[in-house]
Write a structure and sequence with these properties.
The chain is mostly helical. The chain contains 13 helices and no strands.
Length: 275
Amino acid sequence: MSEFDKASKGAKMDFSEDMSYGDYLGLEPILNAQHPLSEAHDEMLFIVQHQTSELWMRLAIHELEAARAALLSGEQQTAFKMLARVSRIFEQLNSAWDVLRTMTPSEYTAFRPSLGNSSGFQSHQYRLVEFILGNRNSALMKLHKHHSDAYARLEGELAQHSIYQVAISLLCTRFDQPDLAGEPGTTDWKAKDAIQDLWQRVYEDPRAHWDLYELAEKLVDLEDYFRRWRFNHVTTVERIIGFKRGTGGTAGVSYLRKMLEVELFPELWNVRGAL
């Protein structure tokens, strides 16, 4: 027996007729999807960081859609597990900024012209995450009109209640109140005192409403990680390009700072000051 055979310790070594690890994961197209357009060393970092972020967002969408379906079917514990997973996904997305921040302004400038007008602002998956959570700016749909599949998926999402609207419907049902969730496709959500009052009743007696109490905390935890992701995005962009305009035409850092003011679940944050 050769030293190689001893080292393998019985592991299967021939995959000419069986599915291998790389086959199952479809690694060949993934690992060959990086095509830098310049000779700059750091362009590969930029591409990989954004591609992996899109993969994590794909998983976040998968989990959020399933969590909403579970809430609608009364499977709250299942939904809680999925929401917790999305929070951890955004923890991973936050860590990705740490890697990108190793790139200096000089290194980014070396390949920035290769980006043309492409920008993360155009990510349809990020927009879908926001739509599912409830931040729905339908005016931004025009960014995706050239991509019919992405546009149709965003349209389909706007025809449904956001996950927060589903939570509000459950809240209103619990206290035998008229449904305050609004219509599917509701945009520019504003905090409502009546909804905050109902959440306050949950927080004042968590034992009596433990499922809604846990749902509220899972949503707050998710938005907490989401806010951190936005903040790290701002600081990373400022560190690398300062206050230049973004490649996609946005105002760059000033636009991203404005996004920090957006609250996904405002009543859940406001109720803390009322307790």
